[in-house]
């Protein structure tokens, strides 16, 4: 069995050990030389070029992805050529376009913030008038890690985006500003035959739009876990996703859980599963796209805490700090993405597991701090 992964980032990199354990051959189409997944990069090329991607896919059993940015026309060309693509274009469009995603979630009847498409100034002005004079404007495509999101209190505050959309740039939508108490994420894996499994709900901690740590399972979430399970299964089935699906959510101050965004690939909120679950999200993703029976999502310890290394050391790489970091924290797992340091960039993560949340979180945060600038 051969899995072709389009995209050479850290998600593709973390599929490599899982593929080795399964005895699956993995090949990567990287965007450039020296990327995070260069260990398995058998080709380098532009994922936006259908001829490049079709050539890469010629002798693989399935194509999957490190990111959701492959254009629909390229995805359709793969399907038309008889290539197994998981997740397929009909599912991926809901991760690529937030307007389509919101419309589909409304059709499925799952909980989400109030929203509206914005095609003109009047659309935004009406929404703001109906929602206390404030809203969250988003670009429908292209935003991630806090980019493409703006809280506005007047249409004038989004005038540049409105002008850009009118000139052919990303379309816009607006959502209500949700009064939330915390952010959550639910991961589910589904294979083409329909089998689906979920991991425990996790709590994510964000700073400046970037996830900095994940608590698994989410504290004090037993009462909402069954509801979230049902929502995740309804979404996965309703959009026909295959592979890992991450559903980012808000828990509101009045106890509701609302869908924020979708990601159809292994996700930062699931990195803890490498060290904290029987089956990691990366192994599960490979199983799912190959339509193999899915693995257990049971916890290996009562709690896991994953902390991202953001930016990294002032110079060099994470490995330059290994001697001191690994000696000081031998009970914490360190994962480097083989990326150079850069402000705001995720260059690795650490995971601690154990019995008591506060103690586990302390160990994970202390270990991550070893790699700070």
TrEMBL record:
Domain annotation ATP-grasp: ranges: 102-290
GO molecular function: 5-(carboxyamino)imidazole ribonucleotide synthase activity; ATP binding; metal ion binding; phosphoribosylaminoimidazole carboxylase activity
Pathway: Purine metabolism; IMP biosynthesis via de novo pathway; 5-amino-1-(5-phospho-D-ribosyl)imidazole-4-carboxylate from 5-amino-1-(5-phospho-D-ribosyl)imidazole (N5-CAIR route): step 1/2
Gene3D superfamilies per record: 3.40.50.20, ATP-grasp fold, A domain, ATP-grasp fold, B domain
Subunit structure, as described in the record: Homodimer.
Protein task: Catalyzes the ATP-dependent conversion of 5-aminoimidazole ribonucleotide (AIR) and HCO(3)(-) to N5-carboxyaminoimidazole ribonucleotide (N5-CAIR). Catalyzes the ATP-dependent conversion of 5-aminoimidazole ribonucleotide (AIR) and HCO(3)- to N5-carboxyaminoimidazole ribonucleotide (N5-CAIR).
The name this protein goes by in its record: N5-carboxyaminoimidazole ribonucleotide synthase
Protein species of origin: Agrococcus baldri
